[in-house]
Amino acid sequence: MSVVTAAAVLIPLLPLAGWAVLGLRGGRWPARAAGWFASATVAASFAAAVTLFQALAALPAGTRSVEVDVYRWIAAGPVVIPFRLLADPLSAAMARVVAGVGTLIHIYSIGYMAGEPGFARYFAYMNLFMAAMLLLVLAGNLAVMFIGWEGVGLCSYLLIAFWFDRPAAARAGVKAFVVTRLGDVGFLLGIFAAFGVFGTLDFTTITRDAAARLALGGGAATAIALLLFLGAVGKSAQLPLYVWLPDAMEGPTPVSALIHAATMVTAGVYMIVRLHALYLRAPFALDVVAVTGAVTAIFAASAALVEPDLKRVLAYSTISQLGYMFLAVGAAAWTAGMFHLMTHAFFKALLFLAAGAVMHALGGETDMRKMGGLGRRLPRTAAAFGAGALALAGIPPLAGYFSKEQILGEVFAAGHVWLWAVGLITAGLTAFYITRAYALTFGGAGASAAGPVRGAQGGHAAGAGAPHDPPPVMWWPIAALIFLTIVMGIVLEHVIPLAPWLRPTLEAGVPRGTGSGAQAGAAGVLLPLAGIAVAASGIVLGWLVYARGAVRGQEAAGGRPEVPGPAALVKDAQTGRVPALGRLLAHRFFIEDLYAAAVVAPSRALAGWAAAFDRAVLDRAVVGVAGGIGRSGAALRRLQSGYLRHYAAFVLIGTLLILAYWMWR
Amino acid sequence: MSVPASYYLGLSAVLFAAGTAGVLVRRSALIVFMSIELMLNAVNLTLVTFARLHGSVDGQVLVFFVLVVAAAEVVVGLAIIVDVFRSRETVDVDEADALRG
Question: How far are the Cα atoms of A341, A383, A503, A630 from residue A350, in angstroms, in the given order?
Fold first, then answer.
């Protein structure tokens, strides 16, 4: 058994073992022991991922794809599907990021979840999530990927509804589960269709045979690609199935950081890159992916402009950034998409952990209207959030700048000028809303209006007393993510470039070279400059409106009754009227209301009708049958007299009847 | 000359009917038990009769099986009766109606 094989099996197996141990015994351990145990299994998994990465790097470039058959899983006549893992540059790089960020967030959770009931349950779910996510990443065929795909969905549900005694959390968990299920129907149909075309679900075979089996732009290719993309839309919260992700913020903040920002929601992007050969046969599907991504990016960014809840701002930001990734893969810029996936994992995890530190300090408060001036009380948290915000806005040399510029450059080079323009505008909006979030939370002179507000997220241990920076066990993961956020862009662009590493996997991929070197000439210089200029102006504008405006509002009214903003977006103090644009944004373009009218109401009507039918017909039939059986039993029980002679007589009578039958038949 | 087979069969039928009647009408478990033995031996008589009639030993072999099983059954049955007597201080089968529905 080679190093690669052992590492590939161990990576998902270690957290799975952790889940089993914690699920069975963890409740009886001291709380911190359960947390450290869970962190240790994920850290060991990360070590295995690094080992796998190094072992693959030691191989010649052409042979860096190792299939590991764990066992023969499904064998039904001609259908044979092994439980197969695939270790190649793409999965190794992704597994390393997932396990690395997962380790940091596990350690952070030990501090964040301290004193919560269900501590061991939380870490058992987190371990199960890591196992499912790593299985999804390392899957060697679509069937195994589907196990991981559904596994992360299950864990997402369990962790969103972690505080299940709060109705909002329970509802949000169910919503996430049901909405992603809509997409999964498409995903499953796509898997079936792919099996019908290829006769196998193996990624290597599909990549090899895609060109031979699928006509370019043909119906089969387009159908498979679009069906699988439907699954990605649900899992990665793109329009129109994004509605579950903002509500998913009801879960604990580390869960939001790990599942709903860094890892699970990027599964759709990863899946498309994994099947890039298939998507290249369906240009129309790629266009759909790109347009969906671009529209989602700008839509979610504009929704984030008016959102008063800190975590939900970050949720919309995640949706928007995922839109960028889909824009990239839709333009066949696989490397750029994966690059942004990784940098986003770092800086968005950082933003969420910093937001978690704020909530930790304020006893669970997430409403930015009640915050302000926290920069002086939480200097390190403010610095962490600031670093993440600058990276998100795309300011060089932080991580987000490189990947975002690469995406925009590739999209421009691919000739999608309109989509490029949308992406550029979104970059400005991104810089604006994250500056707004920073300014409302940390900026301003006044003390936090909230003080220690308790109870919004279930009691946090550190709610009492003055707001303070997080304890070391929470701070060190944040510090590590600050470091990664600052350097990983440069590292993956220049020091250990991602593009040549992924090229063996993507060699069947992009027709015109993969790296950012594709753009040349004047555009190669002007595009990044345009991006920086847009981002900088977004930040400056946001700072002028919110940080300065906050101070003025406080001086005028002695408090902060309303989120200040551009005149077009906020409620007019005199007339109480909300301008049309602001109302549109505040209701997120009424998409949720559309769902309520078009999906939820008919479903409820159908459910009511089904319930009436159930009570009137089915229940009555069942109760009637049961009653009849009961009555016949009551009649028959008189035969059971308990007297031996009666039973003997029954035997005699029966024998005589049988004899009579045989004699006179 | 030999006795005709129908005589044996008639005797067997009488014995079987007597045994059946005993099982159905007697109250003492011991008598019921003896009646069962009577029924078994009525059947044995039939088997031997037919074996002679057909000139085959199969029926006689079967009689040995019946005897062996009957002996085993007596052992178990008497043990049960003794146990019932210990717990209820009677062997009246009409008293043992714990299985009444």
Answer: 14, 11, 29, 65
For residue A571, give the amino acid letter: K
- Residue B1: its pLDDT value, please? 58
Task: Answer yes or no: are the C-beta atoms of A263 and A133 closer than 8 Å.
Answer: yes
Beta bridge partners of A79: A76
User: A296 and A241 in contact (C-beta within 8 Å)?
Assistant: no
Instruction: Nearest by CB to B23, from A636, A640, A648: name it.
Output: A648
| Residue A67, φ and ψ in degrees, nearest 5 | -95, 135
Q: A397: cis peptide before it, omega within 30°?
A: yes
In sequence order, the β-bridge partners of residue A83 are A71
8 Å CB contact of A652 and B96: no
For residue B33, the chain A residues in CB contact (below 8 A) are: none
Distances in whole angstroms, Cα of residue A140 to Cα of each of A193, A203, A222, A474: 18, 6, 23, 36
Cβ neighbours of B98 in A, within 8 Å: 642
Angle made by CA atoms A47, A50, A51, in degrees to the nearest 5: 85
Length of chain B measured in residues? 101
A637/B97 Cβ within 8 A: no
**What are the two backbone dihedrals, phi and then psi, of residue A69, each rounded to the nearest 5 degrees?**
-90, 110
Q: Which residues of chain A have pLDDT under 70?
A: 1, 444-466, 507-524, 547-589
Q: Which of A440, A127, A477, A257 is nearest to A248 (CA)?
A: A257
Amino acid at A372: G
This model of the complex carries an ipTM of 0.84
C-alpha to C-alpha distance for A268 and A241, rounded to whole angstroms: 13
Strand duo A79-87 + A66-76: pairing? antiparallel
B93 touches chain A (CB under 8 A): yes
Q: Partners of A309 in the beta sheet?
A: A367
pLDDT score recorded for residue A218: 81
Tallying the residues shown for chain A, one arrives at 665
Residue A594 has what pLDDT? 77
Contact of B89 with chain A, judged by CB distance below 8 Å, is answered with no
Rounded CA-CA distance A261/A343 in Å is 11
CA A99 to chain centroid = 15
> How far is it, in rounded angstroms, from Cα A45 to Cα A8?
10
For A580, the 3-state DSSP assignment is helix
| pLDDT tens digits, A41-65 | 999 999 999 999 888 888 887 778 8
Residues of A with CB under 8 A from a CB of B: 636-645, 648-649, 652
